[in-house]
Each structure stands twice: as C-alpha cells, then as structure tokens.
Write a structure and sequence with these properties.
The chain is an alpha/beta fold and 336 residues long. The protein has 14 helices and 9 strands. Helix 13 packs parallel to helix 14.
C-alpha cells in the first residue's frame, strides 16, 4: 500500500498515484479537534505532534507539519511574545525594529540557543519517532520579507522598501541566512520538505518582488534542494501578478490562495516536477459551503491545474469548520 509520503513524492514527480494527495493546512482546527490548548500547540512539540498525527489518521491527510505561527525566528531575534491559552501568539512590547537603525543590531541566531526554533526541530524528530516515513513531514521557515514584517510591522516595512532599500537588503540577507540554517536543522531532523512562508510579498507588487525578494527566495529554494529536500512556497493573498515569479523560483509545491481566482492561466508555466496546492476558499467553501459546494471546488481546482494540484485550501482551515464539512472535504479529495 502506498504511504502518504510516497503518494506525495510520486505526485510531484508526475508519476502514477492511487489518489491525489490531501494537504489541508490545519493548525487551530487540529488543536480544537484534539482538545489541545493553542498555547500548548505552539510551545509543546509533543502536544502538536499528537494532534497532527491524530488528524492525519482520522481524515486520511497525507502530510504533517510544524506550522502553528510565524514567530519562531522573530523570538530568536529578540522579539517578545505572549502566548494566550487558546489564541494566536501576540507581540508583548510591540515590534522588535522600532527604528530603522535597529536593523544594525540584528545577528543570525544560533538555533540551539532558542527554544522556539529547537521546538520545531524536536517536532520533526517526534514525527519520525511516532510515524517514521509514513507521512510527508514538512518543516517551515519564514521568507525574507515575511520575517521583516514580523519584526517591524507591515505598514512600516512597506515604507522602508522605498525609504531604506540598503537596510532592506541587509535585513533580508540576515533573514535568508537564518532560514538556511533553520531549514538545514529541520532536514537533518528528518523533514522531507521545507515550506517557505513569505505572505507579505502579495502586498508589494511584481516590480518590488522581482527586484528585492525573488532572487532570495530562489536561493533559499535551491539551498533546500541541495539538502535533498522538497521545497514549498506559500504566499497567501492575490499573487496573480507575481505567480510566474513564484513558479520560477523552482519551488516543487507552489501554494495558490483563493484570491487568485483560477489556476488555469498559470498551469502551463509549471515545470515537469512542479505542482500547485490550494485555491479552495477556506471560509466560503470549506467552512460555510455544503457537500456539493466543497466537491465542486476541489474538482474545479484539479481541472484548472490540468491535474497538477494537491488538494488543499488557499490557506488555513478555520477552527470554526465543522467536522461534517471537513469530512466532506476529505471525501471530495478522493474523487478527483
């Protein structure tokens, strides 16, 4: 019988599989389903792994991930966070970069010195211990712009792109080298794939993306490949204008948010061993839709991508999604 890991790897390579891989992004949904407080989901790697594996078993999901929040690197850089019992982490004293010259104080962190980064490494080790190579294990790092937004704030970061381009080059280079080291530690722990989250790139337009961040994303993805791992690029929002560049980074899996509208205009840009993942709207379709709505969306995504699309929503499955609707989603994934 084909394992979830084998199914995913074969599908990416264009080889025959028994069904299309099912990779919904579940974080708060998984914690709620497994009665895990979200603080523990973020901070206790054993609780997270238990929840993710239970969801994978109960819903025939083909991957397990370390995703919970984007702040592991930010905390290692020195930013402080509060961890509410059942909510997303929140900055404790505002953003780390309050003045543009604070960038000069940033240093590439030593992963072993920071609990949140090491937690992610331990999660992957725990997945390997509990499930071996049954599931496609996905680690995660922040992309250069996403990391700067995490420690600076979106509005301020966007202004800095124009006002302080030399500082942006410096901070994005630090973020890139941090991501490389973090990716390496996760691959060495057993990750089959590293996801790169760089969501803020959907907010800056194609010219700035090409000039400031495309090459760094490409370099990071090439580095992940050099480690022998698969690379996944996740930029949520309307990425229609930068999607050709995202594909050209060489990422094996390119996530597509529902705001793109359709994958069809971009399907022929995929390389021989590249696939899309996503597009279904996690709120109007997966959370609020009925069985037919969910099924139609999954089939439409598959057809738009000419069969080269992993079943997933455009972004995270909401914690308000009912078990009934998620089972509809699970069943629909087997009908394409």
């Amino acid at each position: 019988m084909m394992t979830s890991r084998e199914r995913t790897l074969k599908f990416i390579k264009g080889e025959s599989v028994d069904r299309v891989p099912f990779h919904p992004i579940i974080m708060r949904f998984a914690a709620k389903y497994c009665n895990v407080k979200y603080r523990n989901f973020c901070l206790n790697y054993k609780d997270k792994c238990r929840a993710m594996i239970k969801c994978a078993e109960d819903f025939d999901i083909d991957w397990v991930t370390v995703m919970s929040d984007p702040y592991a690197e930010a905390e290692a850089f020195g930013m402080e966070f509060e961890y509410p019992e059942n909510d997303l982490p929140k900055p404790k004293n505002g953003h780390l970069i309050k003045n543009i010259d604070d960038i000069d104080k940033l240093k590439i962190p030593n992963i072993k010195d920071h609990a949140r980064m090491m937690n992610r490494v331990h999660e992957i080790e725990e997945y390997k211990r509990l499930a071996g190579d049954k599931y496609f294990i996905v680690g995660w790092v922040e992309g250069p712009l996403a990391e700067y937004v995490d420690i600076r704030g979106l509005a301020e970061a966007c202004l800095d792109l124009f006002d302080y381009p030399e500082k942006i080059e410096k901070v994005s280079s630090i973020a890139l080298e941090t991501a490389k080291k973090f990716a390496q530690a996760q691959v060495e722990a057993g990750a089959h794939c590293i996801g790169v989250g760089d969501a803020a790139c959907s907010q800056i337009g194609p010219r700035l993306y090409k000039r400031l961040f495309f090459e760094k994303q490409k370099e990071l993805i090439e580095y992940i490949h050099s480690l022998g791992a698969i690379a996944k690029l996740h930029i949520c929002g309307n990425t229609s204008k930068i999607l050709p560049g995202m594909i050209n980074t060489g990422a094996d899996i390119v996530d597509i948010d529902h705001l793109v509208g359709s994958m069809e205009p971009f399907a022929d840009l995929l390389g021989e061993k590249q696939v899309f993942s996503g597009l279904s709207d996690p709120v109007t379709v997966i959370q609020d839709g009925d069985e037919n709505c969910i099924k139609e969306s999954v089939i439409a995504c598959y057809r738009q991508a000419k069969g080269r699309c992993i079943v997933s929503a455009g972004c995270e499955i909401t914690p308000e999604t009912s078990i009934e609707n998620f089972k509809y989603y699970q069943n629909a994934s087997k009908e394409v």
